[in-house]
Amino acid sequence: MFKLVLKLLLAFLLTISVFLDTKYVDKNKLSYTLTNSSNFYKSKPYSNILTKIKNYTFKAIYKTKLLTYVNDINNLNLGKEKNEFYLIALPLSDKFNPFSGTFCHDNIQYSDKASLPIFIYDILLNKHIEVPWNFVIEKVDIKKNEIYNKITMPEINMPNNYKNINKVDRIFINVLDFKAKKNFLFLPNYIMKSLQLNCFDVVKLKFVKLETATSIILQPHDKKFFQLNEPKKILEEKLRYYSSLTKNSTICIFHNNFNYYFDVVKIDSEKKKDVEVASIQDSDVIFDFVKEKYP
């Protein structure tokens, strides 16, 4: 019913737009206005309003279809007991910030924690999967109808518009909470940037078990990190908000009103050297550093 109303509204807007175009264009000057677009648009005083309403309607229809598509895939995978789910990605906001005095308070953007939908929690319990609950996510390219190709969703901005975030094909995350609406996933901004995600892009999520890390090499982006008093101690304290690290990804910690970024250069686990990912939760990891990336 909702989709039908949106389609009727869109048809109405297109009809009104055509009517106004005809009304405000002098037919004797049609060839002139077609070659002088600035004059052409000045002759349509309602054009901007109608365009905004039309774009809003297109976005609403696209979001509805996207949600239906994701929901259908997840229902199929649930029926097949498949460990793979499609979720619509959005950035974490302050409303997900845990209460003062609780774990991760004021650090949700400086962690690998994501807000997941409650049905994921139900699956974990029903399958008796023990914590830590780690997942791998990767971007899914959705084929769009041509009419939706020009739809642009809000982009994700880092603090101070920081742009030096490594791009990766997939990244490993842990659970912040299960407050997300069904078929949605809320991620820290740096993870959105790492996977080149914009709002309402789709990711594929799988549960994974990880080996424990033994040693990790990091590369600070800024030499200011080495000028801190006991930098390694500060880093180890801040990394308690991370459950795992992904090789070649960029992570961020916040200390004394400054964002410190690091590239994950190398990870060794208990069983293998130079692995893609390993858990650092409740483990004694040796951290080492290479020279800063941007002197």
Automatic annotation (TrEMBL):
Q: Does the keyword Manganese apply?
A: no
Superkingdom classification of source: Eukaryota
Q: Kindly list the GO molecular function terms attached to this UniProt entry.
A: polyubiquitin modification-dependent protein binding
Can you give the residue ranges of the Ubiquitin fusion degradation protein UFD1 N-terminal subdomain domain? Answer: 96-210, 213-291
Q: Does the keyword Acyltransferase apply?
A: no
Keyword entries, A-Z: Signal, Ubl conjugation pathway
Q: Name one GO biological process term.
A: ubiquitin-dependent protein catabolic process
Q: Which cellular components does GO assign to this protein?
A: VCP-NPL4-UFD1 AAA ATPase complex
User: Per its UniProt record, what InterPro entries does this chain match?
Assistant: Ufd1-like, Ufd1-like_Nn, UFD1_N1, UFD1_N2
Which residues are the signal sequence here?
A: 1-20
**Family label:** Belongs to the UFD1 family.
Q: Mind telling me what this protein is named?
A: Ubiquitin fusion degradation protein 1, putative
Upper lineage is: Eukaryota, Sar, Alveolata, Apicomplexa, Aconoidasida
